[in-house]
Design brief:
The complex is a heterotrimer of chains A (about 220), B (about 290) and C (about 850).
Chain A lengths: L1 H19 L4 H7 L2 H9 L6 H5 L2 H17 L9 H4 L13 H12 L2 E3 L10 H20 L3 H33 L3 H34 L3
Helix pairs in contact in A: 1-8, 8-9, 9-10
Chain B lengths: L31 H12 L5 E6 L8 H10 L9 E7 L6 E7 L16 H5 L8 E4 L2 E4 L3 E3 L5 E3 L9 H5 L6 E7 L9 E4 L5 H4 L6 H5 L5 E5 L6 H8 L6 H4 L11 E4 L4 H8 L15
Parallel strand pairs in B: 1-11
Antiparallel strand pairs in B: 1-10, 2-3, 4-5, 6-7, 8-9
Chain C lengths: L5 H16 L9 E3 L19 E6 L8 E7 L2 E7 L12 H4 L1 H6 L8 E3 L8 E3 L2 H17 L6 E5 L4 H15 L4 E2 L7 H10 L5 E3 L6 E5 L10 H15 L2 E6 L4 H4 L3 E4 L5 H14 L11 E2 L8 H12 L4 H8 L3 H13 L4 E4 L1 H4 L4 H14 L9 E3 L41 H7 L7 E5 L3 H4 L3 H9 L6 E6 L11 E4 L8 E3 L10 E4 L12 H11 L10 H15 L6 H7 L1 E2 L24 E3 L4 E3 L23 E6 L2 E3 L13 E2 L3 H5 L12 H4 L6 E6 L13 H6 L5 E3 L1 H6 L7 E6 L2 E9 L7 E5 L9 H4 L46 E6 L1
Parallel strand pairs in C: 7-8, 7-16, 10-11, 10-14, 11-12, 13-26, 16-17, 17-18, 27-31, 28-30
Antiparallel strand pairs in C: 2-3, 3-4, 5-6, 5-18, 9-15, 19-20, 20-21, 22-23, 23-24, 24-25, 27-32, 28-31, 29-30, 29-32
Helix pairs in contact in C: 4-18, 5-18, 6-14, 9-10, 9-11, 9-12, 9-14, 11-12, 15-17
The chains are: A mainly alpha (about 220), B alpha+beta (about 290), C alpha/beta (about 850).
Chain lengths: ~220, ~290, ~850
Amino acid sequence: MIETTRQRSNIYRLLALIYRTEITKALLKHIRDPKFLSILSDMGAELEDDFLKGPEDNLIEVLAVEYARLFLGPDKHISPHESVHHERGDGDWGTLWGKSTVEVKNFIETSGLEYKSDYLGMPDHISVELEFMNQAAGREAQAREENDNDGVLCCLKMEKKFIDEHLTKWLPVFCKKIISEAKLPFYREMARITNNFIEFEKDEINRYIAEAEKEETSQVS
Amino acid sequence: MSKTDKVSRRDMIKAGGVVVAAAATGLLPDDAEAKKKKRRKKKKKLPHWAMIVDLRRCIGCRGCCIADKAEYGAALGRFNTVVKNVEWGKYPDPQKHFLPRLCNHCSGDESKEWQVPPCVEICPESKSGKRLKMGKETYRTGATYKRPDGMILLDPKLCIGCYKCIDACPYGVRSPDPNVKLTRPDREKDFGVGKCTFCRHRVDKGIVTSCVNTCQGRARNFGDLNDPKSDVAKLAKEHKLLENRDKSTLLPNMKTNPNVFYIDPDGVLEHYNKKLSKETKFAEFKSAFE
Amino acid sequence: MANLTRRNFIQLGIASGALLAAEEGFISPALAGRVKLKKGGKDFNFKTDAERTAIPTACWSCVTRCAAMGFVEDGRLVKMESNPKSIRTLGKMCAKGQSGPNDVYFPDRLLYPMIRVGKRGEGKWKRISWDNALAELTVRLKKLRDDGHPEKFMFHYGRMKASSSKLIKSVFLATYGTKTISGHTSICEGGKWTSQELTWGKHYDNWDFDNTNFILNFGSNVQEAHTNHIPTSQRLIRAKVERGVKSVTFDVRYSNTAAKSDEWIPIKPGTDGAVALAMCNVIMQNDLYDKSFFKFIRATENVNASNDEKIATLKAHLKQYTPQWAEKISGVSAAKIESIAKEFAKTKPAVVINYRGSVAHYNGNDTERACQMLAAITGNIDNPGGRCRGVGPKWKYPKGPKNKPKAKKLKLAHGFPGTIAYPNHGVCQQVLPMIKDGKAGRPEIYMWYCYNPVYANGDNQGNIDVLKDEKMIPFTVTSNIVYDESSKLADMILPDATYLERWDWEDMVDPNQIGEHYIRQALIKPLGEARDLGDVVIELAEKMGMPLGVGASKEEFVKKSHEMTAKAVKGFPGFDYMKKHGVWHDKNAKPKYYSHKKEIKADKLKGAILDEATGVYWDPHKAHAKHPEEGYAKTKKAYKGYVGQKMGDKVYKGFPPDKVNKTGYLELYSALLKMKGHPALPTYVPVPEHEKMKSDELVLTTYKVAVHVHSRSTHRKWLAEVYHDNPGWINPKTAGARGIKDGDKIKVKSKIGEIVTKAHVTEKIVPGIIAISHHVGREESGRYASGKKSPFAHDNDPDLKRIFWKAHGVHPNWIIPNSPDPINGQQCWMDTVVTVSKA
């Protein structure tokens, strides 16, 4: 189970990196590793030849342009922030720094984490939310290592709450928009994987919690 | 659980809750080394421990007084913490308030070069101990000494039992403690001095003090003023406690700069300060009730 | 794109891990720090920093019985804390709980079975072995049983709850065949319970401070002592500070609860009922009532009355109780009564709270009913933020042998015949007077447990006289941890285990309206030769040839109870989990509110018949009724067959009865009381003694402080150090008229005796009374309590030399007669008329 948790944590971190800024050289190098590509391909990700074979510098450039077009503007773009997409009953959504932003910030800060002073983005940027999940699952893995079942449950419940109250409230919409707007397959495929992964997590997390609760009941001091 | 110097100020939460250190799973930044250092520096900023007592919430149950007795197996006849009844007014509108008291873990007079409280200042053995490091700061232990995180602590191995600190404390929180045996051959008394230690042995392991743990009114709050997200920092900000020490601490005219603050909308301290004098100060810690 | 499989993600996860391991060249994370986890219940040695072993258990200092943690170091219990996982206590504990270790290690503790050698009460003792002690008890008990008189074994307990009660009372005593059993509830809160049974059924009202917006208090000192203190008290102060909830306290004494209220309203003793009724009147006449709740109220003889009829009836009845009338009686101004009544009625939700200050009076039954009425007419019953019916956890337990004998009893437990209308919870204070009287028979063996009959009741001298008389009671035996004023009068003393050395399952009410299961586990082995009475009765039964079959020890009984509960309560995790965590509640459970609104569907009415007179559907079979045709009201214990209440054309769960055959309505109109010649609707009856008071006479009232347990904690040194003296509180005006100054020695004299104590002249009390707390003033109970050493006590506590207090207080019960409320048997603690003069 520790392994699964670590893997989940890793996926969140990878996705966080992908959305955080334009793809860096280092990251691209790793993604273009044949082994990694074959896993993506297994997942049905259809990447173009350029991505698979083209010269690195050129590809970085092309992806950077696509990233900017999709997420940064200046023209019409898909803002990668929860408060823009998270449709709320009270109507307070659709803008930056909305109610959801505050909620996400509070959630993350209550968990014990803080926003670094050198992070200049918004608190509810997709990459931060994914990074939060990476940290939470990472902490869960540590608790598992220490046989600290209370800790595991505590983390899992936090993760579930975040998935239910935030991620699933906007990522499906957000990913759908990327899928339809993307010109290059890379971001389209990443959006698909992101969406699928969150869907998958949403169900699985309940199973993890049930298991941990069972563990809780069967543990003997 | 990590050792003293590793406990981050983020490790404290209130209400019997405790926190566990976790290895950060985050990745290193681009300019890894430089930022790593910077981060470490920031993280190592020492805590500034403080207690904030919300007098609106104290119901006078004395759970804290007994929790302290139990935590330390304290001898009869002396308390490390007490709750005093502060009363005024006439029937049918009398007033009764409850004032929890403990060592104030004073920072000491800011205008002095060596900023320590009177008890440390007067201790002939205040710097006779080992040279230790806490975070970046180096300090020496002593019979009574100030740790860089603000705790005023005692070391019976160094104490000669001169009891000067007992008189020096304007608050009367110190008393001879028959449970503290002195060992130095040149000691003047057999017993050392006792007082509240902010539960150093718990706090260093990330557990709130014994009195805070049990406080049903949640009147007592303990934490790090250097951590803007801590409850104490928030309370201090909300009630402007640091700015108004004359209203939020005991005997402000003594310029001791206590680190025990009170949220006191009813002006209880003003009534109590009048009563607290050189003559009366010791009696206050002999009884936890009246 | 097809849904991805788990395998896909595993692969991606592994690959990501490899990718991320490279570290360099990635953008730095946005977040710093670490995810923190809540953990509680750790403690360390302050000298060595070594961690202390934490064991979940439960407190037993007071009846609140908080879930707790015990910390053990080298086999010695050093510290108690609360259990941070408990939803009741929220990790908080009071002074009494914190003093737990004293209960185990006080130097005067009883550690060996003893038998008296001199005359009874002379104080000469011999140590005997457990074998000899049990052999003698076996012979005596067996003889009574074999002669056909098991009822001549009387068992009288103070606090015995949950598994202790089930094992000792429901299993052991039932198997033995005696029902000559008395509790102590009538000297505690029995009046309140009975009054609630007459109105809304089962007792225990939970005050929902978490959700309320206004608190109206008649004589409860919830912030110092309460039947569910820690869970309730902390929620009260939280509501006040965090949500600004207003509270108003009526009390004769400026208690700590009054001090933390927005307003203290001094009131004459025994007149709370008048004020409460006047408030009901204000609310009704101004049409501030909640009409919708009237559906569930019974206000008239006719159970089918319409809401309008009920309202009209109440209005007419209450008309006599004007605020001006109440002012004359209570001393509270009419304007104040009116304004508070209106504020209470208009603030939603609001909760009316009250306890012994208003109930332990001659007229306490109807004061409680008046409070119930205040809550009912404003719809603040069993609602979020109102006065709710307490919810506890459900436990199953082994019942012992199937074919128990038909138990016999001496009628000693329910007061002198015909004097009490509904002694539902016994009349504990009359047990010894009735033994003296002799008409109901006398026990040959009188055993008491966790109880101090001499001191806990009124008329201490009278109690001593009976208990000391070998002709009245041939054999006395107690199981106790402390050599108190009563143990002194035993023929045999069995050293009991403290609560920190024994096993139990526990069941006290949860303020969340959910119910929390929790257990008490032995933190250490009992000291000396002490043994839990639970274990002792199992062995006794064995020796008498009536094995109980519930396991070889209390621990096994508790374990078996867990196994049975696991089968009956969904999700209940069992013994190992409970030993590890100490507490459990169903995380999916919703707070229980409004259960009276539950409709009983036709299929649930199978086997039930409608009683036309009361509208009650009941199952005569379940009630073991031999002649169901006599009707619900007249059939003995018919309430056991209650199914639902017909209201209009529907059947509701309503307010199910307990102990008496009331209807399923919240009965403001009580046909049961009428039947016994008492007013059916809540009525103000003045305390007779107070009516006859001369101008120089005062009312004596008693109270509890936050740092002591009733009569069971003066041996705990940390508590005795804090509170060991109890001067009588007296107003300067009252004191001045008698030439009494603060600290003066005074004589307090009632019709049954006098005490000499000290005066505490204070502004915090109404004129015309004297208030004396009732914990201290011991003659025995060891050196911390009385200065007197107990038999076979040891001296190995260095604190013995440090006892600095010479005063041990004066117990007020010497001059308080044993007088019960005529309706419910509650001891009238607060009614005694006295004269006070300088001694």
